[in-house]
Every structure is written in structure tokens, then in C-alpha cells.
TrEMBL record:
Protein name listed in UniProt: Acetyltransferase (GNAT) family protein
Molecular function via GO: acyltransferase activity, transferring groups other than amino-acyl groups
Native source organism of the sequence: Actinoallomurus bryophytorum
InterPro entries: Acyl_CoA_acyltransferase, GNAT_dom
UniProtKB keywords: Transferase
Origin: domain of life: Bacteria
Stretches assigned to the N-acetyltransferase domain: 1-134
Length: 258
């Protein structure tokens, strides 16, 4: 991809109702920390694809084709280039059957749904203490929790309007860390020895919005209580991966960056 492709990428994203591809900060985050590919048909951009690679795992973050060219082979060609090496791979498939068809044929198996939920935040937890912190501090807290250095992702999340870091403590110990923006939990990971439903309840208590949005794996232990509290499933993707244990279903996930 070259800088001159940015307007065409934004237009393809807009035509697919996809907000991230129209955000130059998101595109430059992926260009700086992964790969961003553009497919041309007849000399004009027809589709794009974003990937990240870490520890032998390739995460397919985005794959979008100009609707006028859906089914014309551009998506398949982008995947052949993006996933040409060995190693594990994972992604979230939309409900477009072309996406799942291509991903299965590139070695990924459907694992669980990722649910786009919205609902009223619960009253504050009295067991765990959740607080808003600078976004970068939450990135350091996640590194301490699980050893994953997501500093670049936290730096990108920090550019989003109204962004904040989230940390949840049990006594003095940090047991969950993540990022939020107004009305949305972007990301939240929980220490292995703590209950992800309890940390999410605590994190949701820091919101004063009427409704909060988040993306939750189907197997996440908080799902039954959220649905009992009248949360709504607004959409769903399908998590697909070459191996079952590549992504924890106990986290709030960002569909593009996980
Ligand atoms: C999904 C998408 C990126 C695929 O790109 P594309 O250029 O349209 O796809 P291609 O033409 O390369 O390949 C589609 C494949 O799906 C197959 N396919 C189509 N409908 C299918 C169905 N109902 N069941 C199974 N396979 C199907 C086609 O046969 C084709 O495979 P083939 O080339 O071996 O014949 C594109 O359609 C798109 O942008 N969709 C909307 C946005 C979206 O959902 N993006 C995915 C985000 S995860």
C-alpha cells in the first residue's frame, strides 16, 4: 500500500459500512505494526487487507473488497498473499459466506461466535475496585498480567476520542486491564486466577452512559448475566483459527486487533 491509496481504502471501507478503514490512524497503526495490502483490478484499488504477526501467529485484521467487485476473486488473491507463510492464523469472519469460505480454505476452523452486545452498565461492584487510568498505564498493567506487550495497540487506542485505560484491582493487586472509549469497552483481559465476569462487572461500573457496547466471545462467563440483564446481541462474527487455543474466550475483544 502507498499513501495515495488512502482515499480509495476509505471509500471501500465506507461502502462496506466498515468504520476502521476510513480512520487514517487505524490504517497507519496497521501499516506500522503489521502489513496492509491493497489489491488492484484494472489499475484501480479493488480491496484491502490488514494483518498482524506475533509469536508465529498471523492475525487477519481486515479484508474488504469494493462491493461492485464482490465475488470477483480480489479477496481470495489478497488472502493468498497475506497468508503465504507457515504458522498459525486466526481472524473474525463476518456473516458474508464468502469470508468463511475463504478462511476455511486457508486453514481456519470456526471456533465460537464473537457477539456485539449493548446494554445498561450494572451498578458498581463492591468486591473489586475498577478505575480509569492513562491508557498507556493500562498497557503496562496488561504486560504485567499476561506478559503480552500490547503497547502499540494501547497507543493506538489512546488516539480515540475520550479514550481511557481500565484497571481492576482485588485488594492492591491488578487483576484485569483494558481500554475504553465513551460508551464502549474496547478490550479487557483478566488474570488467569480471577473471574472474568466479576472483573467485567467492575469495569462496566466505571461507565455513566445509559448503554455500553462491547464484543464478547460466546463462551465468556459474563454472557448469561448480561443477557439476563436485558443486554442485546446486535451482530456477531465468527472466530476462526487454525488451532483452538490461540485466543482466550475470557476477554473483551476488539474485532480488528483482538
Ligand atoms: C468477504 C470478501 C472480502 C471476499 O472477497 P471477494 O473478492 O468477494 O471473494 P472471492 O471472489 O475472492 O472469493 C469468494 C469465494 O467464496 C465462494 N463463495 C461464495 N458464496 C459462497 C457460499 N454461499 N458458500 C460457500 N462459498 C461461497 C466463492 O465461490 C469464492 O470462491 P472461489 O473463488 O474458489 O470460487 C468480500 O466479499 C467482502 O468485502 N465482503 C463484504 C465485507 C466482509 O464481510 N468482509 C469480510 C470481513 S471478515
Amino acid at each position: 500500500m502507498v499513501d495515495g491509496d488512502l482515499p480509495a481504502v476509505a471509500e471501500i471501507a465506507r461502502a462496506n459500512d466498515e468504520p476502521d478503514g476510513g480512520d487514517p490512524r487505524y490504517v497507519s497503526h496497521l501499516r506500522n505494526n503489521g502489513r496492509f495490502l491493497v489489491a488492484e483490478v484494472d489499475g484501480k484499488p479493488a480491496g484491502y487487507c490488514g494483518i498482524r504477526q506475533a509469536d508465529g501467529l498471523t492475525m487477519l485484521c481486515d479484508l474488504f473488497v469494493d462491493p461492485a467487485r464482490h465475488g470477483g476473486g480480489a479477496g481470495g488473491r489478497l488472502l493468498e498473499v497475506a497468508l503465504d507463510g507457515p504458522g498459525e492464523r486466526s481472524t473474525f469472519a463476518s456473516r458474508d459466506p464468502r469470508a468463511m469460505s475463504l478462511y476455511v480454505r486457508h486453514g481456519m476452523i470456526p471456533r465460537w461466535p464473537l457477539l456485539y452486545l449493548s446494554g445498561p452498565p450494572p451498578v458498581r461492584s463492591h468486591v473489586l475496585l475498577a478505575e480509569r487510568v492513562p491508557v498507556e498505564d493500562a498497557g503496562v498493567a496488561e504486560l504485567d498480567l499476561n506478559g503480552r506487550d500490547r503497547a502499540a495497540d494501547y497507543a493506538y487506542w489512546a488516539t480515540r476520542p475520550g479514550a481511557a485505560g481500565l484497571v481492576v484491582r482485588d485488594g492492591g493487586t491488578v487483576v484485569a486491564a483494558g481500554a475504553a472509549e465513551p460508551g464502549r469497552v474496547i478490550h479487557l483481559v483478566t488474570a488467569d486466577d480471577h473471574d472474568p465476569a466479576a472483573t467485567l462487572t467492575a469495569a462496566l461500573g466505571t461507565f455513566d452512559a445509559d448503554r455500553v457496547r462491547l464484543c464478547l466471545p460466546g463462551p465468556h462467563p459474563a454472557l448469561p448475566s448480561l443477557l439476563n440483564a436485558r443486554w442485546r446481541i446486535e451482530d456477531l462474527d465468527q472466530h476462526m483459527a487454525s488451532r483452538a487455543d490461540l485466543l482466550s474466550p475470557a476477554s473483551v475483544l476488539s474485532p480488528s486487533l483482538a
